[in-house]
Specification:
The structure holds 2 protein chains of 2 kinds. Chain A is mainly α. Chain A contains 17 helices and no strands. Chain A has a domain of about 220 residues: MetI-like fold (Orthogonal Bundle). The longest helix of chain B has 20 residues. Classes of the chains: A mainly alpha, B alpha/beta.
């Protein structure tokens, strides 16, 4: 853990970043188009949503105070965080051995395994969720088997409740957990493990005392990324959840579609955004930016140019993760693209 | 060389003539329903007028509003249901229609509005699995759905307050004509009784079908057309016709669209009873022009929501009431669900 403290103690990123950008105007130039793109297509609509939640029709805090008068929406927010947290925890626990196991294979097998992890990414969430409905249903594969085997008399309630949401959401989120953990694990210097071996540690000891601490930044990055995606999820809890599993994306949808209250929908989105950003900040405080996204032991005590490389990575990744965090808000404001695609299966 | 030039000129001619033909974009619910619309209305319409019709889905209220407000209108004709129609009319999203020549009296009640002309009449009905209760012996009314002693088993209802409050009041013995204004307290009190038995709150037609197909529920509230569609596939389900909660679809023209006149022509074209009959037979939704029943075989007509016999105890959803009380009712409904 000393190592983590060491890094988080050196996170005075802002002055370093600006000097880096000054000195390396080439890099700045490279990032500029992306930054411009983000400002126009991401930050501007985001600001629009914020304005809508405050000025609908004129300046009012009513949409935010409505959160207290209709306390159900606070519960919806807590639900969202709870569902996202436990599904994320499950994906990390299931994903860690997978990510770890993948590091033992050569490039060919690793690519195949990587494909096995990422192919579900390309299949629509809707399809994946429907297939879980077939597995977990009242007369689904599992219940039919249990009853056939005489293990249960009545069908178990595996879905249309929190259980179904956790199971299917953990499945949907799994790749988001595996990929960052795996990339960090690949960067871990294996000679450290051999050193531990040569000093007489058992395989379990060298895993626990060397590999595990070094892989923690990957776990943290995976956790954060998965959690953010989970917090904005809509399709899975909508289809797999019961009445008690309403999440904030569903409330935003019904405010837009049934109630036509865009101000309140905007307020809900802003609250979600700030909650997630708050958690993000909290993680940064404890983990440090570099350990989260810069990744590996290389970040510490490496030559200057290499560290700069890491920093370029950080900038790009922070922006990329920012997109995730606000994804749902943009979906809402753009009202086309992903949001409309999700809506396309209605009725 | 001459030939090449000639071919090029021909191509150019072809391009310009297709560019001249007007095209309207109609946004509806997609899938088999859009196909039915295409067969019943669009193809003969294009043949007669030369105006092309392109179908897209899905009529998302937020997207409709965003198009009109931003002045970037992609859709000419859209088909919202009552809730979307009332909100849009209130928000000023639609062009007023030219209703001259439309036989208003032939239409179902509320079928012709200043901004919208209804195409289909669809309803939320009691439906049940016939492998649980033999056909004719299952729950027939909302009161039967609520009677969990006589008809035990899991229920499924729609995930909105919309249509469920009405069903609850009908189950509680309120006559169809006295549903509005809704006595919200009474409706929720009645819903409390059913709540422990509601296993699924279905989110859309496809989901409702999936729920019945996979036998997640034995009975509940479903769109009748979807259940008939399932029955056609051999799933043992039947809808009942006593006390339907009805939603109408309206064709509207978005304000600021590029082909207003052609869109108006298309909407007038859809009001013809023969064409409506064709749509109804292809989609299982009821025609809104009741004269269409002259062209639908009797046994099929009895399976349609807008058949005069089936309309006797029906309640048409009051979009105006929901526009005024939607926010309160939705908050209460969500809180009620989560309790």
């Amino acid at each position: 853990m000393d190592y983590l403290h060491d890094i988080s103690g050196r996170t005075g990123l802002r002055p370093r970043l600006s000097t880096a950008l000054h000195k390396h105007w080439g890099v700045t130039l490279m990032i500029a188009p992306l930054a411009l793109y983000l400002v126009v297509f991401y930050l501007a609509p985001l600001a629009g949503v914020l304005m809508q939640s405050l000025f609908d029709p004129e300046f009012t805090l009513e949409h935010y105070t409505a959160l207290w008068t209709h306390s159900v929406y606070l519960r919806v927010l807590l639900n969202t965080l709870d569902i996202s947290f436990w599904a994320t925890a499950a994906s990390i626990l299931l994903g860690y051995p997978v990510a770890y196991g993948m590091t033992f294979f050569g490039p060919v097998w690793r690519t195949m395994l990587m494909a096995a992890v990422t192919i579900p990414f390309w299949i629509s969430v809707l399809v994946r969720t429907y297939s879980w409905m077939i597995i977990l249903g009242r007369f689904g594969v599992i219940n039919n088997f249990l009853q056939w085997a005489g293990l249960t008399d009545a069908p178990l309630e595996l879905m249309y409740n929190r259980c179904g949401v956790y199971i299917s959401l953990a499945y949907v989120l799994l790749p988001f957990a595996v990929l960052p953990m795996h990339s960090v694990m690949l960067g871990i210097d294996r000679t450290l493990l051999r050193a531990a071996d040569s000093l007489g540690s058992s395989p379990w000891q060298s895993f626990r005392r060397v590999f595990l601490p070094l892989s923690l930044p990957g776990v943290a990055a995976g956790f954060l990324l998965t959690f953010i995606v989970g917090a904005g999820t809509f399709v899975t809890p909508t289809l797999m959840g019961g009445p008690k599993d309403t999440v904030i994306a569903m409330s935003i949808d019904s405010q837009l579609e049934i109630v036509n209250d865009w101000g309140f929908a905007g307020a809900l989105s802003v609250i979600l955004l700030f909650t997630v950003m708050g958690l993000f900040a909290l993680c940064l405080r404890f983990m440090g930016l570099e350990s989260l996204f810069g990744g590996t032991s290389e970040a510490h005590g490496t030559p200057r140019n290499k560290r700069l490389d890491t920093r370029k990575n950080i900038v790009i990744q922070v922006i990329a993760h920012g997109i995730r965090a606000g994804g749902i808000v943009v979906k809402m404001s753009a009202c086309s693209g992903p949001y409309a695609r999700n809506a396309a299966w209605k009725r | 060389m001459k030939r090449v030039l000639f071919a090029m000129a021909l191509c150019l001619l072809a391009v310009t003539t297709t560019a001249q033909a007007e095209t309207i974009t109609v946004c509806s619910y997609g899938g088999t329903y859009n196909k039915a619309l295409e067969e019943a209305f669009a193809k003969p319409f294009t043949a007669e007028t030369g105006i092309e019709v392109v179908f897209v889905s899905f009529p998302n209220y937020a997207k409709m509003k965003a198009q009109v407000q931003s002045g970037n209108v992609e859709w000419d004709v859209v088909e919202p249901s009552i809730n979307g129609y009332v909100l849009g009319a209130h928000d000023g999203l639609f062009e007023p229609l030219d209703l001259s020549g439309i036989p208003v009296d032939d239409f179902v009640k509320g079928g012709i509005q200043p901004y919208g002309v209804s195409t289909v009449y669809y309803s939320h009905n009691v439906a049940y699995r016939t492998d649980v209760w033999p056909a004719g012996q299952g729950p027939k009314t909302w009161a039967d759905v609520w009677n969990t002693k006589k008809f035990p088993g899991p229920r499924a209802v729609k995930y909105t307050a919309y249509s469920n409050l009405e069903a609850a009041l009908l189950a509680d013995g309120v006559p169809p004509s006295e549903i509005y204004p809704i006595d919200v307290d009474r409706a929720f009190k009645k819903l409390d009784e059913l709540k422990p038995h509601i296993k699924v709150y279905w989110k859309n037609g496809a989901h409702a079908q999936q729920v019945m197909r996979a036998h997640e529920a034995d009975t509940g509230s479903f769109a009748a057309g979807r259940m008939l569609d399932l029955a056609k596939d051999g799933v043992p389900v039947v809808p009942e016709w006593n006390g339907a909660v009805v939603d109408l679809d309206y064709l509207v023209i978005l304000k600021g669209c590029k082909h207003k006149d052609a869109a108006m022509k298309f909407i007038k074209y859809t009001t013809d009873p023969k064409r409506q009959a064709k749509l109804a037979m292809a989609s299982y939704y009821g025609p809104s022009n009741l004269k269409a029943y002259d062209y639908i075989p009797e046994d099929m007509a009895r399976q349609m929501p807008s058949h005069p016999d089936n309309m006797k105890n029906a309640v048409i959803i009051d979009g105006e009431w929901y526009r005024e009380h939607g926010k309160e009712v939705t908050a209460r409904w969500e809180a009620w669900k989560m309790q």
